[in-house]
Amino acid sequence: MKIAVLLKSGPGTDNAERALQTASDMLAQGHTVSLFLMQEGVRFCCPDPRLSKAMNIQKLIGENLDVHVLTQDAQLRGIDLTSGDRGFSDGSYDSLVSLLETCDRVVGIL
Q1: Distance CA 87, CA 105 (A)
Q2: Among 8, 19, 32, 88, which residue's beta carbon has the most beta carbons within 10 A?
């Protein structure tokens, strides 16, 4: 099953922890999982070393989590997505709609 998880909460929040745990559980069950980061969720692109949860996203990417970042929200927060390859894909509202149309299930953890 192809599943999309939408996350607008930033690292260190209960919602972010719940989203990463949900994605991890679904990956462990053999599902294809895409995580779409928007609003404060784009802060996962520049992890704070004090927040261990931000590092878990890299582990999940290694386990085939597909991560999309809403480029517009990252730019509004001064986050440069071109510096370094951390396994994130640039995203737009059009790509979000395309992702949602191709998924079997959508989980919004806002």
Answers
A1: 23
A2: 19
Q: Give the CA-trace dihedral at 72, 74, 77, 81, to 10 degrees.
A: -130
Question: Mind listing the pLDDT tens digit for each residue in 55-78?
Answer: 578 889 999 999 999 999 999 999
Nearest to 38 by CA among 3, 80, 67: 67
Q: Once rounded to an integer, what is the mean pLDDT over residues 16-31? A: 94
Alpha-carbon Rg for the chain, nearest whole angstrom, is 13
- From start to end of the chain, where are the E strands? 2-7, 32-37, 66-70, 88-91, 105-109
Domain regions of the chain by residue span: 2-109
Q: Tell me which CATH homologous superfamily contains domain 2-109.
A: DsrEFH-like (3.40.1260.10)
Q: For 92, how many CA atoms within 13 A lie in the half-sphere containing its CB? A: 2
